[in-house]
Design a protein that fits this description.
- By secondary structure, the protein is an alpha+beta fold.
- The chain is built from 22 helices and 15 strands.
- The chain has helices at residues 24-40, 42-45, 116-125, 129-133, 138-148, 153-167, 178-185, 192-202, 205-216, 247-250, 252-257, 260-270, 277-286, 300-310, 318-327, 332-345, 383-388, 405-411, 454-470, 482-503, 511-517, 540-547, and strands at 52-53, 60-64, 77-81, 87-88, 239-243, 353-358, 361-366, 371-376, 394-396, 416-418, 428-430, 438-440, 523-527, 531-536, 564-569.
- The strands form four sheets. Strands 8-7-6-9-10-12-11 form a seven-stranded mixed β-sheet, with helices on both faces. The protein has a four-stranded mixed β-sheet with strand order 5-13-14-15, with helices on one face. A two-stranded antiparallel sheet has the order 1-4.
- The two termini are 17 Å apart.
């Protein structure tokens, strides 16, 4: 028997005292209520009859007897149940059968994951390709040059141009292919795109890939040690499953809005990891589920929910997640870049950014909604994101900053404020303020008023890092933290979007509010041929999500084989 909601109301008629323990009466009622329900509904619970459902309130009236305390004896209270109507719950179809709705649907066309050229072509049409390329490391540029040669050599030439620009004019010409040595010797920087585009159009694929590796200083495939594959993905989930938390599913809508979900398939396809998209989904789910005890131990319900979210049979082996994290390293900066560009587009330059140390790196966050911008290893890698946000003031929160962070920010002309005591040699100036406050020696913020909100921002930022970085580990066995950082950014963005959408008009939106308020929202997940259907219980949370547009269907989910993810209540 499952009770979805229970309200206990105590009414006192006459008298003036509740006695020495006012809560004892309520505790007695709550402790005895299961036995009362079991006795009253014993005919329905006996035998192997059909399941029944009561959709109207069941009112249980308890009048204490002469002893004054409900649970003192079996005859000390009068118990009355209101009459209710019971409806038989229809049994669902077996896992190997289709539902009634599916029987009328046309056979779904085979789904093919988009190639990398689709993503880079879309970014080029929006004028954001150069901005993304500036954020990618050389390893990623080399990977996608090779992937784009089969479908879009124009985009491959632009990636090759970015590699040549980073290599600089002092790059040894004897490493260039013969057709490029003389043109490169006298070419200006502005001539590089045309020269490389002409070369990529006619050159052999292996020659272009070799040139890209040489520009990046990478070893050839013959000398590089290949990483072992993650192994086959676990069996696909089928039928209908009950999960303890619908929160991972709620992340898909916000991520789809900014184009992040559409980028997962092409990004993994460029690294030849399309079939391992469910492993990415499982890692993402772990970021919004239970706390990882001792840094590696997960709760049983968390492993089941993560596997269902990924469309897999539980559990997902931790070793495969770690192997996937190693292979996916070149593809992850593309996803981080898509997320960063979306957040930077929506940032108001008048609002400050927050900067804190996290897991050996630097986490940059939009102060207004706690939207994550980027997570990098040093301050130099954050500068393109700061410029894309309109060069706002930066509030540096308490956290383990990498050595030289303040010096690098000051040298780049970043206006910052911090309450963190500087180290010897840091180029900072102390400001007259009611609490210790420092700013850069080169450039001060034009408006010092954000300093008043620094303590509150610092507390929220510290809580976010604790909850999503320290307490919840997506891939605890991974030797590299790239996948951990990527799914943390994605989960934080999804939670921030939920909080901003639902509560920005009544309270300060905080992603941890979404994490805590929806963590125990259960759901029933049904896997069908063309869709995966998520049914959440009716109630206030369902109503809030529905009004906020957070239960809209999500099409072409990459780890579900291109199936749609739909939401309903019930």
């Amino acid at each position: 028997m499952t009770v979805h909601r229970c309200t206990v109301t105590v009414v006192r008629r006459g008298g003036w005292s509740w006695g020495p323990d006012p809560r004892a009466l309520v505790r007695d009622v709550v402790d005895t209520l299961p036995d009362l329900l079991a006795d009253h509904f014993a005919p329905q619970l006996a035998g192997d009859g059909p399941d029944v459902e009561i959709t109207e309130p069941v009112i249980v009236t308890v009048r204490p007897g002469a002893f004054g305390r409900f649970g003192r004896s079996a005859t000390s209270a009068e118990v009355r149940f209101s009459p209710v109507t019971m409806a038989e719950v229809p049994a669902g179809p077996p896992p190997d059968e289709v539902s009634f709705e599916e029987s009328f649907a046309a056979p779904a066309a085979p789904w093919a994951a988009p190639v990398a050229a689709a993503l880079f072509g879309e970014l080029a049409e929006r004028g954001e390709l150069d901005a993304l390329l500036a954020l990618l490391p050389e390893e990623s540029l080399v990977t996608y040059v090779t992937a784009l040669l089969a479908d879009d050599r124009t985009a491959a030439a632009r990636l090759l141009t970015e590699l040549a620009r980073r290599a600089g004019p002092g790059w040894p010409a004897d490493l260039l292919p013969e057709p490029l040595r003389d043109p490169f010797a006298g070419a200006a920087t502005g001539d590089l795109p045309g020269l490389l585009a002409a070369y990529v159009t006619t050159a052999d694929r292996e020659d272009v890939a070799r040139l890209a590796r040489a520009l990046a200083g990478e070893p050839s495939p013959d000398t590089a040690e290949p990483a072992p594959p993650p192994g086959p993905v676990a069996g696909r989930a089928t039928g209908e499953v009950r999960v303890r938390s619908a929160l991972p599913f709620l992340l898909t809508g916000p991520l789809a809005r900014i184009g992040y979900l559409d980028a997962i398939g092409p990004a993994l396809a460029g690294a030849e990891l399309t079939e391992y998209a469910p492993l990415f989904a499982a890692a993402l789910a772990y970021k919004v589920l239970g706390v990882t005890e001792r840094g590696w131990r997960r709760g049983e319900h968390d492993t089941e929910t993560a596997a269902v979210f990924a469309g897999l049979e539980p559990p997902v082996p931790e070793e495969r997640l770690a192997a996937f994290a190693r292979l996916a390293r070149p593809a992850l900066p593309v996803l981080d870049g898509v997320l960063a560009l979306a957040v930077c587009r929506g940032h108001d330059p008048a609002d400050p950014l927050l900067l804190t140390g996290a897991d050996g790196g630097l986490l940059l966050v939009d102060a207004q909604g706690m939207f994550p911008v980027a997570w990098t290893t040093d301050a130099a890698a954050l500068l393109p994101h700061w410029r894309a946000c309109g060069r706002p003031a930066v509030l540096i929160c308490d956290g383990p900053l990498p050595t030289g962070t303040l010096r690098e920010l000051d040298a780049a002309g970043v206006p910052f404020l911090t309450g963190v005591r500087p180290l010897r040699g840091d180029p900072v100036t102390r400001l007259p303020w009611r609490t210790p406050l420092w700013t850069g020696a080169t450039r001060r913020p034009a408006d010092p008023r954000p300093a008043a909100s620094l303590p509150a921002h610092a507390d929220r930022c510290a809580d976010l890092v604790t909850a999503l970085v320290a307490e919840r580990r997506a891939v605890p066995l991974a030797a590299d933290g790239a996948l951990e950082r990527t799914v943390t950014l994605a989960a934080a963005l999804g939670l921030s979007t939920i909080a901003w959408t639902l509560w920005r008009d009544r309270e300060t939106p905080d992603p941890l509010s979404a994490l805590h308020r929806f963590a125990d929202l259960e759901a029933t997940v049904r896997f069908e041929r063309a869709a995966v259907r998520v049914r959440v219980p009716m109630g206030r949370r369902h109503a809030d999500l529905l009004r906020g547009g957070l239960l809209a269907d999500v099409a072409d989910v990459p780890w579900l084989g291109g199936r749609a993810l739909t939401f309903s209540g019930g």
